[in-house]
Specification:
The complex is a heterodimer of chains A (about 700) and B (about 200). Chain A is α+β, with helices and mostly antiparallel strands and about 700 residues long. Chain A folds into three domains: about 170 residues, Aldehyde Oxidoreductase, domain 4; about 160 residues, Aldehyde Oxidoreductase, domain 3; about 230 residues, Aldehyde oxidase/xanthine dehydrogenase, molybdopterin binding domain (Aldehyde Oxidoreductase, domain 4), CATH 3.30.365. Chain A contains 18 helices and 28 strands. Chain B folds into three domains: about 30 residues; about 80 residues, Ubiquitin-like (UB roll); about 70 residues, DNA polymerase, domain 1 (Orthogonal Bundle), CATH 1.10.150. The chains are: A alpha+beta (about 700), B alpha+beta (about 200). The complex binds FE2/S2 (inorganic) cluster (2 copies).
C-alpha cells in the first residue's frame, strides 16, 4: 500500500519541481476576480466616515443630511462611539447606489467632537511611565566589567504599514436568511467569526465565505474588521449587496501597521571578538496597546549575560497588525546593527565576527554553511574592507551581513480528495492563496501522489464550505496544506489500489501509482491505466480526507520548524546627496523540503524587495501637533519600484540535511534580514552608523555631518 | 483622430446642466452663460450623461456623471475589473489601460474624456487560452504573486514592448518605472519583459 510519507528524491515527479503558477494565466490576463472586483446585481457602495482627530470625545453623529441625498440607501453609525483614539477611526458609514454618491454622502455626515489631548510620538523613551518589563540572565554588570571592548549605540525602526495593494474590505449579500461574503482575507476557514455573525444577525453556520484571489495581506487580513462588520450590517439594513473596501488613505492609516522599535544597546566582547554581554532597552509603539517588538537579542540569543528592558509607548495611531514575520525584522535590525558596530569597534571583519559568534545561535552549522555560500555569491573577499570605504570620490561602497530565523511549522489542515469512476480527481481545502502559490502546490502534491500529470487534478480552495484549514500566517500554510493533501491523496490512492488488486493478481500493498497507471511494485509491467483502475470503483466517486495537525505532522516528519537564513547586501552611497544604491543582494535560505522551487524563489525575491523597501523608503510619518499621518498616499509613502532593486541572487539550501526535514514555510524568513544587511552595508560604506531606518538621504547626510565625513 | 475629449455631447444637455446650477446658486447670469459657453466649448454635467466608450473593440453605452473616472466607469459600470484601483491618484499604475496606443492611468482620466478614443484594457489584450507574448512571459518567469498589480504591469509592458522591441534590461527598468508592486515581483518581471521584447517567450 503506498505510504503517505514524502517520497525520496528519485521518486518525486512533481514535488520539488519549478512548476509554473497554476493561476498565472488567470492573473496575467485580468480574469482573476479579487474580492474588490466582485460586482453583484443591485449592489450598493459603502464609504466610511472617520475621525479627523487623533483623540476626541464623540458628542453626536448626525446622518440626516446624508440620508436625504438621492441615491443613499443606508446609513450606519457607531452607536457605542464615545471616544475616538486615532485619526481615521471609523464612526459611521453610508451605502449608496454609486461610489460617487457614497463619497459625497460621507461629506454630509456631521459628527461633533470634543478634541482631547493626544500623543503620537513613539521615539522618546521618556514617554513611558511606570515600571518597564525587565529581564536579566547571567551576571550582566560583572560581564561588562570584564569585557575588553564595550560598544554602546542607539538604533531605530519606525512604524511602517502593510500597504496591501488590494485594500481591506468585502462584499456582503444576504439572501434567503444566509449571508454570502467575498472578503479580501488570508483566513477563509476562520473568517466568519461571531462579530460578523452578530452584525448581520445571521448564524455563523449560514455565512458563506468566498475568496478566490486576494491582493496582499502580509498578516493584516485575518479578521473581518470593522469594514467587514459594517458592510454586513448595511447589507442587512438595505436588503441589497454592499461593497465596502477602504480608500487608500485609510488603508495606510487604519488597516494595520508594523510596530516601531527603538533601542539603546550595549554590547560587551573579548578582544578576539567573542560577545559576552548584551543589554538592550527597547521602546516603540503599536498604537494604543503600546507593545514594541521585544525579541532581544535576536538570533544570538545564547549570549551568556543579557539584560532586556521593554517600554510600551501608547500612541494615538491606528492599531498594529501582524506584519510579515512579526517582531523579527525590527529586532534583527536592532541586534545585528549593534553587533556589526561592535565588530567595527574591534576593527574586525564583519563576516569573521559573526562566524566566530555562531555558537550563540540555535543552528550554528546551518548559518556557517549559508554564510560561506553567501560570501561566495557576493564575492565577499574581493570586495570587503574595514569600516569606511577609503577610495577617493563621493561614491562609497560597502557590504553588510545579517542572519535570521523563523518557525514555519505547518498548521492544522484538512483536505478532501475525490476520485471519480472516470478517473477525474478533485482536491478541496478551505485554504487561500495569497500569491504564495498555495493552489499550485496542492495540485503538485496530489498529482505526484497519484502518479498523474498536473492538469489531471482540479484544486478548489477559497471557500469556508471546504474542509477546514488554518489562516495563512507565520509561514504555516505550505506545511499544512502539503501534508493534508498528501494524506488525502494517499488514502484515495489506497482505495483505488484495493479496488484493482485482485484484478492485477496481487495485493494493494504491492501496488504503486506512476506514469498514469497503477502497477505492481516488483513487476511494473503488470499494470492498469489510472482510468481503468478508477472504473473499478463502481458508480460512486470516493472521497478521502487527510487530516494534518501540528504535532502529528511534526512527529511524522511531514513538516517541521526552525529555519535559518543569511543575507549580504552590497551598496553604494553618494555621500554628497545621501542616496543609497543597492548594487547586489544575496539571500541564502533553507526551508526544508521544497515543494515548488520556482514559487519558493519568488517568495524569497519578493521578501528581498519588500525588505529593500522598508530599509530605504518606508515610514509612517506622523505630525505630533495634529496627530495625523502625513504620508497616507503612495506618492509619499514610497514603495520600491523596478529601478530600485539592483541585482538579486537567491540560493535555496536543498538536499541532504534539508529535504529530509519535511516541509517548512518560507513566507516570513527572508523578509527579516534586509534592514540589517543594508544598514550594515551603509555603515561599512560611509564609515558611520545611520541609527534608524529607513536610510533616506537626509538621515545619511545627518549621520555624516554629526560623526564627520570620512573623505 | 480629430475628435477631442468631451466632444459628442449636445449643447442642449450642457445648458440643461448648467441651468440647474445657475438657478440653484444664482451665480451665473444668462449673459455670463453665453460667454461661458463660448469660452469653455463643450461642458458636461452635472448629473448623469450618456456616453459611448470604445473599449476592446466594442462600443459600450453607459450613463456616468462627469466626475466619474475612466477607471470607475470600467470597473463599476462595465464590470471590466481587470484594471485595479489602488492609489486612485496616478502613482501606482495598477489602473493602466491603453488609450489610442499609449498607456494611461485610467484613475486619472475622466470617463467623458475617453469618449471617441480607443480604449484597450487587460481584458482586450489576451485570454488565458490566448495570452499575448507579455502574458506568456509573465507566467513563465513568475512575474506575479498576489497578482493585484499584474494587469497594470502587463498592460504597461504590452504598450512598452510594442514601442521598444529588443529593449535592454535598463530600458525595461526605466519603461516600467510608473508601476508599483507590493509583493516584490520585479526580478521575474525584468526577465519577462526582456524576453517578451525579444519576440516572445515560447512557454
Ligand atoms: S490607481 Fe491609478 S495610478 Fe494608482
Ligand atoms: S504581485 Fe502582489 S502587488 Fe504585485
Amino acid at each position: 500500500m503506498p505510504k503517505a510519507e514524502w517520497p525520496p528524491a528519485e521518486k518525486r515527479t512533481l514535488i520539488g519541481k519549478p512548476i509554473d503558477r497554476a493561476d498565472g494565466p488567470a492573473k496575467a490576463t485580468g480574469t482573476a476576480k479579487y474580492s474588490y472586483d466582485i460586482n453583484r446585481p443591485n449592489m450598493l457602495w459603502a464609504k466610511v466616515v472617520t475621525s479627523p482627530h487623533p483623540h476626541a470625545e464623540v458628542a453626536g453623529i448626525d446622518t440626516s443630511a446624508a440620508e436625504k441625498l438621492e441615491g443613499v440607501k443606508g446609513v450606519w453609525k457607531d452607536e457605542a462611539a464615545k471616544e475616538v483614539n486615532y485619526v481615521g477611526q471609523i464612526v459611521a458609514a453610508v451605502a449608496a447606489t454609486t461610489e460617487e454618491i457614497a463619497t459625497e454622502a460621507v461629506s454630509l455626515v456631521k459628527v461633533n467632537y470634543n478634541p482631547l489631548e493626544h500623543q503620537v510620538v513613539d521615539s522618546d523613551p521618556e514617554l513611558f511611565k511606570g515600571d518597564p518589563n525587565k529581564r536579566d540572565q547571567g551576571n550582566v554588570d560583572e560581564a561588562f566589567g570584564k569585557a575588553d571592548v564595550t560598544h554602546s549605540g542607539n538604533y531605530g525602526v519606525p512604524v511602517i504599514t502593510h500597504c496591501c495593494l488590494e485594500p481591506h474590505g468585502q462584499v456582503a449579500e444576504i439572501r434567503d436568511g444566509e449571508m454570502y461574503v467575498w472578503p479580501s482575507t488570508q483566513n477563509v476557514s476562520g473568517y466568519a467569526d461571531r462579530g460578523l455573525s452578530e452584525a448581520a444577525g445571521i448564524p455563523q453556520n449560514k455565512i458563506h465565505v468566498d475568496c478566490q484571489y486576494m491582493g496582499g495581506g502580509f498578516g493584516s487580513k485575518f479578521n473581518p474588521g470593522k469594514w467587514g462588520t459594517i458592510s454586513a450590517a448595511l447589507a442587512k439594513q438595505t436588503g441589497r449587496p454592499v461593497k465596502l473596501l477602504l480608500d487608500r488613505d485609510l488603508e495606510l492609516m487604519i488597516a494595520g501597521n508594523r510596530p516601531s522599535g527603538f533601542s539603546k544597546i550595549k554590547v560587551g566582547a573579548t578582544k578576539d571578538g567573542k560577545v559576552t554581554a548584551f543589554e538592550s532597552e527597547v521602546w516603540g509603539t503599536s498604537g494604543m496597546s503600546g507593545n514594541p517588538p521585544d525579541l532581544m537579542p535576536y538570533v544570538f540569543d545564547k549570549i551568556p549575560n543579557q539584560r532586556r528592558i521593554v517600554k510600551r509607548i501608547q500612541t494615538n495611531r491606528g492599531p498594529a497588525q501582524a506584519w510579515r514575520a512579526p517582531r523579527h525584522p525590527q529586532n534583527c535590525y536592532l541586534t545585528l546593527a549593534a553587533l556589526a558596530d561592535t565588530a567595527a569597534a574591534l576593527k574586525m571583519d564583519e563576516l569573521e565576527f559573526f562566524t566566530k559568534n555562531l555558537d550563540l545561535t540555535a543552528r550554528p552549522d546551518v548559518y556557517k554553511e549559508e554564510l560561506e555560500i553567501a560570501a561566495r555569491l557576493v564575492n565577499y573577499n574581493q570586495k570587503k574592507h574595514v569600516r569606511g570605504d577609503k577610495t577617493p570620490g563621493p561614491i562609497k561602497r560597502g557590504l553588510g551581513i545579517s542572519v535570521h530565523t523563523w518557525g514555519g511549522l505547518g498548521h492544522d489542515s484538512e483536505c478532501d480528495v475525490t476520485v471519480s469512476p472516470d478517473g477525474s480527481v478533485e482536491a478541496k481545502i478551505g485554504t487561500q492563496d495569497l500569491g504564495t502559490g498555495t493552489r499550485t502546490v496542492i495540485q503538485q502534491v496530489v498529482a505526484d501522489t497519484l502518479g498523474l500529470p498536473l492538469d489531471a487534478v482540479k484544486v478548489q480552495i477559497g471557500k469556508n464550505e471546504f474542509p477546514r484549514s488554518g489562516g495563512s500566517g507565520g509561514s504555516t500554510t505550505i506545511g499544512g496544506v502539503s501534508t493534508s493533501s498528501r494524506l488525502a491523496a494517499t488514502a484515495a490512492l489506497n482505495a483505488v489500489c484495493e479496488a484493482v488488486a485482485q484484478k492485477l493478481g496481487t495485493t494493494a500493498e504491492n501496488l504503486e501509482a506512476a506514469g498514469g497507471a497503477i502497477r505492481q511494485v516488483d513487476k511494473p509491467s503488470n499494470r492498469i491505466s489510472w482510468k481503468d483502475a478508477c472504473a473499478a470503483l463502481g458508480v460512486m466517486p470516493i472521497t478521502k480526507r487527510g487530516t494534518q495537525t501540528r504535532n502529528e505532522g511534526k512527529a511524522k516528519g511531514f513538516t517541521n520548524e526552525g529555519v535559518g537564513g543569511v543575507q549580504i547586501a552590497d551598496v553604494s552611497v553618494d555621500i554628497e546627496t545621501g542616496v543609497v544604491t543597492l548594487n547586489e543582494m544575496v539571500a541564502v535560505q533553507d526551508c526544508g523540503l521544497i515543494v515548488n522551487l520556482k514559487l519558493t524563489e519568488s517568495q524569497v525575491y519578493g521578501a528581498l524587495i519588500m525588505g529593500i523597501t522598508y530599509a530605504l523608503y518606508e515610514e509612517a510619518v506622523y505630525d505630533p501637533k495634529t496627530g495625523r499621518m502625513l504620508n497616507a498616499d503612495m506618492e509619499f509613502y514610497r514603495l520600491a519600484g523596478i529601478k530600485d532593486i539592483g541585482l538579486l541572487k537567491v540560493h535555496m539550501m536543498t538536499g541532504k540535511g534539508y529535504d529530509d526535514r519535511g516541509v517548512i514555510g518560507i513566507g516570513e524568513p527572508p523578509v527579516i534580514s534586509p534592514g540589517a544587511a543594508i544598514g550594515n552595508a551603509v555603515a561599512n560604506a560611509i564609515g558611520v552608523r545611520v541609527p534608524s531606518l529607513p536610510l533616506t538621504p537626509d538621515r545619511i547626510i545627518t549621520a555624516l555631518q554629526k560623526e564627520g565625513s570620512i573623505v | 483622430m480629430s475628435k477631442q475629449p468631451g466632444s459628442g455631447f449636445s449643447r442642449r444637455g450642457f445648458l440643461k446642466g448648467v441651468g440647474i446650477t445657475s438657478v440653484a446658486g444664482g451665480l451665473i447670469s444668462p449673459a455670463g452663460l453665453t460667454s461661458a459657453i463660448a469660452a469653455e466649448g463643450d461642458v458636461k454635467g452635472p448629473g448623469e450623461t450618456p456616453i459611448t466608450l470604445d473599449v476592446n473593440g466594442q462600443k459600450r453605452k453607459l450613463n456616468v456623471e462627469p466626475r466619474v473616472t475612466l477607471l470607475d466607469a470600467l470597473r463599476n459600470r462595465l464590470d471590466l475589473t481587470g484594471p485595479k484601483k489602488v492609489c486612485d491618484r496616478g502613482t501606482c499604475g495598477a489602473c493602466t489601460v491603453i488609450v489610442d496606443g499609449k498607456p494611461v492611468y485610467s484613475c486619472s482620466m475622466l470617463a467623458v474624456e475617453a469618449e471617441g478614443r480607443e480604449v484597450t484594457t487587460i481584458e482586450g489584450i489576451g485570454t488565458p487560452q490566448r495570452m499575448n507574448e507579455v502574458q506568456r512571459a509573465f507566467v513563465k518567469h513568475d512575474a506575479q504573486q498576489c497578482g493585484f498589480c499584474t494587469p497594470g504591469f502587463v498592460t504597461a509592458a504590452t504598450a512598452f514592448v510594442r514601442a521598444n522591441p529588443k529593449a535592454s534590461i535598463e530600458q525595461v527598468r526605466a519603461g516600467l518605472g510608473g508601476n508599483l508592486c507590493r509583493c516584490g515581483t520585479y526580478a521575474g518581471m525584468i526577465l519577462a519583459v526582456v524576453d517578451a521584447a525579444k519576440g516572445g517567450s515560447n512557454a
